[in-house]
């Protein structure tokens, strides 16, 4: 056994054994463990509140005793935070905490948020969940946590979750890490970067493409390259997921298209946070890595090279009018550290070495488009004010959630109520005016809106009219002309726990409330409008407007529990806020994660069960990666025969074929080559029979001519023998047995006779 390894890229090694190659990543780096917070000025530390001036956030430095010995807020509750501005983006690898010096104040548990801008915060995740760090149990001990994966940020925010039972919240901190720098390019949705090859055509055996991106858009082409032989590579966002398509070309002889299926990775990638992508390809072996999650694939067919013409574009499709574009959108957002086979694309663009003429205004900084999301859990709500005693309701917002049900908006009218809710994945609007003998409006729109994507809701109601619009689709907007009079109450409750809004002071439910849909909304909202005015959520956060309870402002911390997908064998993953489940319908597998095959592994196994000859599904590797497939089980003899069927009828007529006008028949089996190999490797005997019948049609052109007809094996090699013959002989069965009709030929077909 010989294993050959070679340097593949700066941080990768390629190892091959037989025809299987694996790309291994090697991480060698300098120690990233500098103290980042100690040297910062007091002004770099801010907080939600301060107990007194001696407890200011600037005193919250590890092992320091200045002021009152650390930071403490005015109130010890879950709305407090301590924030650090590192000045520029840094790579953060660890965090350490300490209680307030010589006191009974410390923090026993906390969360870590981070941001590039001091807005649109992202919670630190570990093991697929928002992580809570263990803090301190006294004032002096230092508790340090090395992050499972490093983060890059300028701003860090610590949210105390639990604190000393003997005192209050108290905190001193240190942040550990090192400098971080990367070339950044802002894409405006119009311009693309054209990386042109040194040669007009590139025949590429191996590729390494790496980049980071962030965007608030759910659609957009990140990179694209194509060739005249049908080769192409495209990386794009669709519905907030990352899609990779690679086609390694078309065989001009057989007209077979060999392509890699569309690879999908990630979700919720339109969160305007940085995401890291690495594509590594050597021949037909592909590693596709998104945010440290790697998928390994091997392309179909026999092609190893990616043949690209002229250029690779970043940020969109080339402006060439080629049909493959398919009306796709260009990428709008930011990219950094774009690297293609060792070339720093962002640096080349900065130095004007690449074509960027399609940009209206090329900038090398990230332009942030901020929408101020609000994150709701089961016990939270947001209250905003609108016009009172007005004869029209006009509200709008965007939401994203995994739950099929939940209250999105509730408002008490002067005499009745308005409720907008999510019911079975549809948005429903319900108005009940009690004074008019329970006059009601019930309209619904949309479907499957609990898919985790952002959805836009607009609702308008006035005298004898109401309209509900989903995702800006005016053509599908639902309208009603029900007789109704509207008088607003002036207060709007979004999401969550609305007990205060739903009950009168005497403790009895307010009239007109539809309690069937009062389950709390869990998810995110943004771009909230009341009376056609965009709500100032910054003022809400600062306590100058509205009210809220248990919401996380300026953050959307929704988690996709189906990514990565834990459902095996093509099982469909569905989720709620707290859990996921797998639907195994049509997969041939069962169990919580579709792991266990429902089929036997062989025809032999069916015979042991007492079954007779018939068509059966088998799964040769049980719960392995190979899927089940249909075979014919012949159990009439002592030995069981397994037949894999193909797509051709028993006889296929071919006429009019010539050297200039060849006829190609594609023989496809009902199983993949891997599945067939699983059968043959455990079989005592295996055979494949391909017969050729002829009339005035030469086959092998014997005794010394070039064969006119051949078949191609799985390794793309030509074979010139047919049923009854053997490899390498170039004779038909009659030639081997020396009983051909015309002894001058080694094959009856070569005699060019008029009968079959």
TrEMBL record:
<dbReference type="GO" id="GO:0016020">
    <property type="term" value="C:membrane"/>
</dbReference>
<dbReference type="InterPro" id="IPR013320">
    <property type="entry name" value="ConA-like_dom_sf"/>
</dbReference>
<keyword id="KW-1015">Disulfide bond</keyword>
<dbReference type="InterPro" id="IPR008979">
    <property type="entry name" value="Galactose-bd-like_sf"/>
</dbReference>
<feature type="domain" description="Fibrinogen C-terminal">
    <location>
        <begin position="594"/>
        <end position="644"/>
    </location>
</feature>
<keyword id="KW-0812">Transmembrane</keyword>
<feature type="domain" description="F5/8 type C">
    <location>
        <begin position="32"/>
        <end position="178"/>
    </location>
</feature>
<dbReference type="InterPro" id="IPR002181">
    <property type="entry name" value="Fibrinogen_a/b/g_C_dom"/>
</dbReference>
<dbReference type="InterPro" id="IPR001791">
    <property type="entry name" value="Laminin_G"/>
</dbReference>
<comment type="similarity">
    <text>Belongs to the neurexin family.</text>
</comment>
<keyword id="KW-0245">EGF-like domain</keyword>
<dbReference type="InterPro" id="IPR050372">
    <property type="entry name" value="Neurexin-related_CASP"/>
</dbReference>
<dbReference type="InterPro" id="IPR036056">
    <property type="entry name" value="Fibrinogen-like_C"/>
</dbReference>
<keyword id="KW-0677">Repeat</keyword>
<dbReference type="Pfam" id="PF00754">
    <property type="entry name" value="F5_F8_type_C"/>
</dbReference>
<feature type="domain" description="Laminin G">
    <location>
        <begin position="371"/>
        <end position="556"/>
    </location>
</feature>
<dbReference type="InterPro" id="IPR000742">
    <property type="entry name" value="EGF"/>
</dbReference>
<feature type="domain" description="EGF-like">
    <location>
        <begin position="558"/>
        <end position="595"/>
    </location>
</feature>
<keyword id="KW-1133">Transmembrane helix</keyword>
<keyword id="KW-0472">Membrane</keyword>
<keyword id="KW-0732">Signal</keyword>
<dbReference type="Pfam" id="PF02210">
    <property type="entry name" value="Laminin_G_2"/>
</dbReference>
<dbReference type="InterPro" id="IPR000421">
    <property type="entry name" value="FA58C"/>
</dbReference>
<protein>
    <recommendedName>
        <fullName>Contactin associated protein 2</fullName>
    </recommendedName>
</protein>
<feature type="domain" description="Laminin G">
    <location>
        <begin position="184"/>
        <end position="366"/>
    </location>
</feature>
């Amino acid at each position: 056994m010989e294993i050959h390894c070679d340097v593949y890229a700066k941080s990768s090694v390629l190892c091959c054994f037989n025809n299987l190659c694996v790309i291994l990543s090697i991480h060698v780096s300098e120690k990233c463990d500098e103290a980042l917070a100690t040297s910062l000025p007091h002004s770099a530390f801010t907080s939600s509140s301060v107990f007194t001036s001696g407890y200011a956030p600037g005193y919250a430095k590890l092992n320091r005793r200045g002021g009152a010995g650390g930071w403490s807020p005015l109130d010890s509750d879950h709305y407090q935070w301590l924030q650090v501005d590192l000045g520029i983006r840094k790579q953060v690898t660890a965090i350490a905490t300490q209680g307030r010096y010589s006191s009974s104040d410390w923090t026993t548990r906390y969360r870590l948020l981070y941001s590039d801008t001091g807005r649109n915060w992202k919670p630190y995740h570990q093991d697929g969940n928002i992580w809570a760090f263990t803090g301190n149990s006294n004032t002096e001990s230092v508790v340090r946590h090395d992050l499972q994966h490093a983060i890059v940020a300028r701003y860090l925010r610590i949210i105390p979750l639990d604190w000393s039972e003997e005192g209050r919240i108290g905190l001193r901190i240190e942040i550990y890490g090192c400098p971080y720098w990367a070339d950044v390019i802002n894409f405006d949705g119009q311009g693309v970067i054209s990386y042109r090859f040194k040669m007009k055509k590139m025949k590429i055996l191996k590729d390494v493409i790496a980049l980071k991106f962030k965007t608030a858009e759910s659609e957009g082409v990140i990179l694209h390259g194509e060739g005249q032989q049908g080769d192409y590579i495209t990386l794009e966002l669709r519905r907030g997921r990352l899609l990779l398509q690679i086609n390694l070309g078309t065989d001009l002889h057989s007209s077979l298209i060999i392509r890699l299926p569309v690879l999908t990775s990630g979700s919720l990638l339109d969160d305007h946070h940085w995401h890291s992508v690495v594509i590594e390809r050597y021949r037909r072996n592909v590693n596709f890595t998104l945010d440290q999650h790697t998928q390994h694939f091997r392309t179909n067919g026999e092609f190893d090279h990616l043949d690209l013409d002229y250029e690779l574009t970043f940020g969109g499709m080339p402006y060439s009018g080629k049909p493959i574009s398919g009306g796709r959108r260009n990428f709008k957002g930011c990219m950094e550290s774009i690297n293609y086979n060792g070339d720093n694309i962002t640096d080349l663009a900065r130095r004007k070495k690449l074509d960027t003429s399609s940009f209206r205004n090329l900038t090398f900084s990230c332009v942030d488009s901020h929408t101020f999301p609000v994150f709701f859990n089961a016990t939270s709500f947001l209250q905003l004010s609108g016009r009172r005693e007005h004869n029209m309701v006009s509200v709008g917002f965007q939401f994203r959630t995994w739950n099929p049900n939940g209250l999105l908006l509730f408002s008490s009218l002067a005499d009745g109520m308005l409720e907008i809710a999510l019911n079975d994945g549809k948005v429903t609007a319900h108005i009940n005016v009690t004074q008019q003998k329970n006059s009601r409006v019930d309209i619904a729109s949309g479907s499957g809106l609990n898919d985790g994507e952002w959805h836009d809701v607009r609702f308008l109601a006035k005298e004898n009219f109401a309209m509900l619009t989903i995702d800006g689709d005016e053509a599908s907007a639902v309208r009603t002309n029900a007789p109704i009079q509207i008088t607003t109450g002036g207060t709007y409750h979004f999401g969550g726990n609305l007990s205060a809004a739903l009950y009168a002071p005497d403790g009895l439910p307010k009239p007109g409330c539809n309690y069937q849909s009062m389950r709390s909304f869990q998810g995110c909202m943004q771009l909230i409008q009341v009376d056609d005015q965009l709500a100032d959520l910054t003022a809400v956060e600062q306590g100058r407007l509205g009210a809220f309870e248990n919401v996380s402002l300026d953050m959307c911390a929704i988690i996709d529990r189906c990514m990565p997908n834990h459902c095996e064998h093509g099982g469909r993953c569905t989720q709620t806020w707290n859990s996921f489940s797998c639907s195994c319908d049509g997969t041939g597998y069962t169990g919580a994660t579709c792991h266990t095959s429902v089929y036997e592994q062989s025809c032999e196994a069916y015979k042991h069960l007492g079954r007779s000859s018939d068509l059966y599904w088998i799964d040769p590797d049980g719960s392995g990666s190979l899927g089940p497939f249909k075979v014919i089980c012949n159990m009439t003899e002592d030995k069981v025969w397994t037949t894999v069927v193909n797509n051709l009828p028993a006889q296929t007529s071919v006429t009019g074929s010539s050297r200039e006008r060849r006829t190609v028949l594609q023989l496809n089996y009902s199983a993949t080559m891997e599945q067939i190999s699983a059968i043959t490797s455990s079989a005592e005997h295996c055979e494949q029979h391909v017969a050729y019948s002829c009339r005035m049609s030469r086959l092998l052109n014997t005794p010394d001519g070039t064969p006119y007809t051949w078949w191609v094996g799985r390794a793309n090699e030509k074979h010139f023998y047919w049923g009854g013959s053997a490899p390498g002989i170039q004779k038909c069965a009659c030639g081997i047995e020396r009983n051909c009709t015309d002894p001058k030929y080694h094959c009856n077909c070569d005699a060019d006779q008029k009968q079959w």
